[in-house]
């Protein structure tokens, strides 16, 4: 094997097909089962998009009503999951809580067995996917509340997914503007073909391991700041800079230290992330709603300065970080929010990969010592 054959990071390598989403850097577009994500974000509740990712079609009114009934029936934080979360130190990273909670849910589903194929039909894995989708908001909301010394809030059956998520987190009747912006963010975060965490889930599934193990692995991959952890890192950068007038000097120093500026750049999109305009519009509604022109000024100043200097464009994490901050989520809660959205895409890919039944096992080029033998 020679160097030209080696594609570090699998950059640009097509490893399989998928029918779930199409990321097209040439047209800077993203389709979920053929629908432009911008249209879905502007017209659909997140529940309908989750249904689309799993089933391949948008639900009709009766199908959505039935799906909502199932989702609402599985929202409450199970006692054993809460007990497991309560054992985790308050200063642990919330992604460790989420990873642990998913693991406890999986371990408790003893019918899951050890394989996606032996014991789990696509229908059984779909049921498990919906239950994880329904359970994650309470896990994420409780994580933030316990770190603030606040009590768990029970879900409300009269609220849809996004409004209930906000209710369980903040304990206040959520404003329609905020619900809409949050709903859009969840749809935009839901799915993105073979990103690192989704591919991790597919690799785990390809060995015929179980759906929960695949999601736990995906949570681990998403935690990294080069991937899902970037939305949290964007707020740390905003906190460092403080205000728009500091951007130039801050960027001078950061680039001199060869720092990666979180929220910018993308492995696939090289002329801008197709999701950013929709999430930026949602951020703009929140800036107006909370009367925070300072956030818009800092956002615009950093974007224009960095793009001018490096020609590297914002990704979805750049607008979503300040949006979640304005809504009131703790910075450490941002990547768990990404999990709550992406669990739909992850599990859709688990079901697709399980059907492919093809072990993922690439090659490596050995560069260690030539063969040698123990002396004496
Ligand atoms: C997500 O894959 C997906 O679909 C992911 C995602 C999804 O929905 O699942 O879209 C979600 O993970 C978005 C990305 C979030 N990560 C960040 O915002 C972290 C900051 N971004 C960079 O680390 C970087 O842009 C990556 C990792 C996202 C992509 O990097 P690539 O494609 O591997 O490109 P690269 O790292 O080789 O960069 C090429 C050049 C390098 O300069 P040189 O070493 O060649 O001189 O551009 C530079 C990089 O240093 N560069 C950056 C930069 N991004 C690239 N320099 C400073 N800041 C950055 N953000």
From TrEMBL:
Gene Ontology MF terms in the entry: 2-methylcitrate synthase activity; citrate synthase activity
SUPFAM superfamilies: Citrate synthase
Catalytic activity: oxaloacetate + acetyl-CoA + H2O = citrate + CoA + H(+)
Keywords, comma-separated and alphabetical: Acyltransferase, Transferase, Tricarboxylic acid cycle
Organism: Microbacterium istanbulense
Pathway membership, UniProt: Carbohydrate metabolism; tricarboxylic acid cycle
NCBIfam families: cit_synth_II, PRK14033.1
Pfam families, per database record: Citrate_synt
Residues passing through the membrane, by range: none
The UniProt record lists the keyword Membrane: no
InterPro entries according to UniProt: 2-MeCitrate/Citrate_synth_II, Citrate_synth-like_lrg_a-sub, Citrate_synth-like_sm_a-sub, Citrate_synthase, Citrate_synthase_AS, Citrate_synthase_bac-typ, Citrate_synthase_sf
Family designation: Belongs to the citrate synthase family.
UniProt name for this protein: Citrate synthase
